[in-house]
Every structure is written in structure tokens, then in C-alpha cells.
User: Fold this.
Amino acid sequence: MVIDQPDLDREASVADKMMQAVDQQAVAMSTSDQIAVENVSLRYGGSAGVLAIDNVSFTVPDNEFCVIVGPSGCGKSSLLYLAAGLHDATSGRILVNGHEVFEPGRERGMVFQGYTLFPWLTVRANIEYGPKRRGMAAPERRKIVDQYLEEVGLTAFANHYPSQLSGGMKQRVAIARALANDPAVLLMDEPFGALDSQTRTTMQKLLLRVWERHHKTVLFVTHDIEEALLLGDRVLVMTARPGRIKAQVKVNIPRPRTTNLILEPEFIALKRQLLSLLHDEIDENH
Assistant:
């Protein structure tokens, strides 16, 4: 298999920046693990540039699945990148586990829309990358990787390369790789946005199962209202640029959940509420 090195560099640059942080000092875990966004603003292009995010504040309690929705260009993905430590806020701060975020760290796992797998590594090697960089012993690494391979249904593909996988399978690897590093927080930026409708539904079911098992604190960005309500405990609605938190909607639908929920009256009522909030925002800015 011949792989062009410049293509590899482009494909994996973001993944490498996130994963190399596993060598750094581990952050102590506690029962109060959470995300705290405090008066965060982001301006591109200096003081005269574009204000993308304006004075945003919210917290995500331990084990909550929090979803962010908003109009295109409202800064929801930028906010996630700030939480990941991949960008710096213009003002304000973000804390994870009580520690201010300045750079990527192993207490935060990131799953992108574009997979960001290492294309020269097998599925198994991608998943064990973080634990291996931390110096975990080989038998323990194998046990963890086998566990997540089974959870995401890819045991039979352990020795395949990303180029041999479908989009949905690549995203399963990305989720398993993030979880194998045992982060306190999982940051997910429209992870199913590039998938077809059927595969997206399958991945939503998978994520629901995995989250029910591990109960990580999750901050999840999506433009899909049904996905937000199916997955989330709470949905934050952002305004059009500059992005602010316009409203929060509690999803008081019992778990475990299935995709059949989209037909239930309670689900439909919440969907109407979110659509109204978003439509009002679009109308006000066009």
C-alpha cells in the first residue's frame, strides 16, 4: 500500500495535535468533572475583525450529555474547538475538571466530522495510540482495545486500515479511539454530519448504547434537531453570529432511548420548540 506523505500529514495533523497531549501531565479526576464556559468571546482578525462568539457562559455537569445547536456560522463548532484547546478565546475562559484550558489534554477526547484517523495505522493501532503514548503496558492496552472493538462492532476489522473502511466504520474507530484514552469529557463536532441517513441512524444508536454504558460528560455539536433531542439531556440554542446562548431546553425523556422516539408526542413538542427558536433567529438575521 503506497500512501502519499503530504496527504497523510493533512489528514492527521489535527488528530496528532489532540493525541500528542497524552504524554503530558494527567489531570486528576474527581466526582465534580465538568465543563465551565465563563464569559467567552472569540474574534477573528484582531480588534476590527469578525466577532464570532460573544460573552458565552454555561456549565455542563458531570455525566451530562449536552448538545449545542444554532444557525450556520453561529460559532458552535468554534466553541467546541476552544474547549478542546485547539484555539484560544479572545476573552473569558473555559475550565474542564476545574482546570483552565490552554491546550489539548488527555482529559478531553475529540471526535470530528472528518474522522481524523491516522491512515498509516490499523484500526487496532489507531485505538491504542493514546494508551500506548501514555506508556500503558501491552497486555492492558490489548484488553482495552479489544473491549472497544467489541463495543463498536469492529473486532473483525482490527487489522484493516482506514482506507479499507466505510465512513460509518471510520467514525466508530474515532469514537473508540477517543474513549480508549478514558477522557473525563468527550467533545463531538457534528460527528455524523458526513454520513448518509441510514448510517447516521445506526451511529446514533451506537452512541446511545456506548454513552449509557460509560456516562461520559459530552458536549456535542449538531445542526440536526432530531439528533439533538434523541441524544441530549439538555440542548443549548445559539443565536446567529455573533453567537450567544439564546435558550436552553431540557430533554425530560426517559432513557434508554430508541430512534422510535421521534414519533412520540413529547418528542414532537420539543422539536417544535427548538425549530421555533431557530426559525425566529434566522428570520431576525435575514
Observations:
- Residues 1-11, 18-31 have pLDDT under 50 and may be disordered.
- The longest helix spans residues 265-284.
- The domain at 5-284 is CATH 3.40.50.300 (Rossmann fold).
